[in-house]
Amino acid sequence: MSEVAILARGLAKHVGAGSGRRLILSGIMERHPKLKIVMSHTGGALPYQSGRMDKNTKAALLPQPMSTYIKRMYTDTVSPHVLGMKFAIEYFGTDNVMYGTDYPCWDPATALKLLDEVGLSKENEERLFYGNARRILGLRDPVQAKAPAAQEAALA
User: Fold this and answer.
1) What is the pTM of this model?
2) Which residues contact 2 (CB under 8 A, 6 or more apart)?
3) Could you tell me the domains of the chain?
4) What is the mean pLDDT of residues 124-135?
């Protein structure tokens, strides 16, 4: 089962993948356009079923098709096959996908080998392995420790 991490005001909560669909149909994503939702395992079934959901959810009276809200979500590359990874990257876009291994359930070396077969450009690799997580999760560079001599001088 995929998980969804809801990131709001620095808080993260994990809920089942079906909750991604409910977050959309309930209107929460419409009412909170800056809400960040991170779906694991290449977005679970949502991206694969988005066309069917667009067709079958018109009664929800959302101002936009369901797929519009799904594409605002973020995901990782956890998939045991190259085509799943490629689909997630094409569906969500390179700016909305982060590297994932599913460790300890799956060997990171295998995840990297499969991801290499996707054939990303160096620029997209940098986004996927580093830049996207920093931007999406609001991560900063670690503060560099002061050199011991500078620390001693500061204490004197």
Assistant:
1) 0.80
2) 16, 17, 20, 39, 40, 41, 43, 44, 45
3) 3-155 (3.20.20.140)
4) 96
